[in-house]
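User: Structure tokens for both sequences below?

Assistant:
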Amino acid sequence: MRDAQYIGAGLVIDPGRFGVIAGPAFAELDSIHQRWDQRVVRVVNPWAALITARATTTSMTKGKPSGEHGLYTIAVARDADGSWRIVSVHKTTLPDSSKQ
């Protein structure tokens, strides 16, 4: 994860610094991949939209694979120059149905 850049909670963390700030669990990640399975975009007005999405995240830590399924709600807004930015992200982790 040395080449990943994290942007969130008003922070832009340079590559190589995320593991230091986020803690040892993230520093030990060998890889992480997120696949967006479903997405729905709801336009609120010309300056705002809400995105709901279902995603599967898989990762590898010290050669051991893991994964989770989640539902995301993402609020986006346009800046004065018209560019879009994420203003809020909420994730709910879903239980693994294969283990129930």
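Moving on to the next sequence.
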Amino acid sequence: MKRSTLILAAALSFAFSVPAFAQRSHPSPGGPPSGAGGGRGNGNGSSMGESHENSAVTHTDMSHASPSTVLSHNTAIADKIKTLTGQDAATACNGFKNMGQCMAAAHVAKNLNIPGGFDALKAKVTGSGSMSLGKAIKSLAPDANSKSEAKKANKQAGDDLKGTSS
């Protein structure tokens, strides 16, 4: 009898914990955050960070979204990528996992005047045997402080994405 009560208690505990996770808003690839629009004002008031859900897309969301998703909704970012790389943004960002990576690589190539330019850096970061941005910087610009340059470029990318999110 005690064993069945324990199993029932564990099952109920799990059953009631799952909806709590399902109600949290998380960005989904290629679409709006889950629960967008439907989870607000439902009267429970228990949503963590509810006041932040009202902002459409934050720079963090954009930096982790696929480049095609961001570029299809934000021409200012597309223009910034074209300015940094000299290429159409869709072409420049093709192969990057997210917009933050593409934007950071574009800044590094411009900041350090990388030999071979953005294309050489992109090949190192997205090609077969891809490597981190820091390692790519180290291989293409050995005299640069790869750690600080990667950090600087990531900050620049975040600032760009934050500044164009409205």
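User: Anything stand out in the second?

Assistant: Residues 59-163 form one domain.
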